[in-house]
């Protein structure tokens, strides 16, 4: 039977490993070493207390540790696989018709290895070998493969025929649409040309109408001017008749004496015709009648009398 070293031995081992040294104990019988996962506590096992060899004292531990200061360290686990090992295992798996997955490569390596390291080397192998895994059936007979290939070829030909027919239908539909669009375009262009011609004709008619309107406006203005002159002349003639009647009743009078005797309607009419009646205006209009021998005769002291008929 074997048992572990005590707490002191375990702590001593941890301390020496932290300083980069190995712990080697000398006993009458050689110590056994085993991986940590297979034992309990420390990796160093010694014979049971029942044997003749007593446990070493503290002083003996110090002396023996000093003499074994440069002893080699015991390995803590299996070594990591190299890139060459991973490449070799992956090539062998591929040659055997197996897919070199991470699990299979680790299982094939004698020392195992961490998934991280193996995966790194396996990625390098895939890149160097240009390995691209594909789904390839391996349990099919030659006849099944030939029939499968023939079926795939027939399906491909059928798909090609259908695609060609669909393309032809789409092309015919596109050509029909293009022809309809061209026809509509020609129709619209014809309508545009017709509308443009009508627009030109309307513009010409509008210009002619505008010119005719200008002529009409000029003639209308001339007629209105003549009408205003006729109305003004008629109004002045009525005023002269009213003055002639006044002179027939009152006798010779000066324009200044005549003006207050005119009717209010006559004065308002003069304002409407833009010819306000004043003594000077009356004298000017009466002199014109005297010159033409109508209505009045001049008298002494600037007076006017009615002309005898």
TrEMBL record:
Any Pfam family: KfrA_N
Domain KfrA N-terminal DNA-binding: 85-198
Protein name: KfrA N-terminal DNA-binding domain-containing protein
